[in-house]
Amino acid sequence: xSGGDIAGLxxxxxxxxxxxxxxxxxxxxxxxFDELRTAIRTVTDETTPLITEVxxxxxxxxxxxxxxxxxxxNVSDASANLSALSSLVAATLGAPLIKVAAFSxxxxxxxxGRKTSAGRRRSR
Length: 124
Prior knowledge:
The chain is mainly alpha-helical. About 100% of the residues lie in helices and about 0% in strands.
């Protein structure tokens, strides 16, 4: 063996050691990528039904809000009708009731004043 052959064998040995040292991190990186792929697959498998359920919930909530909007509209109409009815009753019966109350107050006051005047006349 010549000096060039020995130098070639040493270089080949160093290269083999270098490849072995570089193979370990590459294998570990491959395991990391495998775990990452598994984690992404798990997240995807769990997220798809969740998104489907959320979509269903939002759709149902939207329908319920439409129903509540209809109910609110009906209540608004009913309150407007009640307001108009109370205004009509106040206009129709309010003024005559005030007049009757004033008349009855006047009559009571007149009779009360008469009783006190009659009581004073008798005591004299």
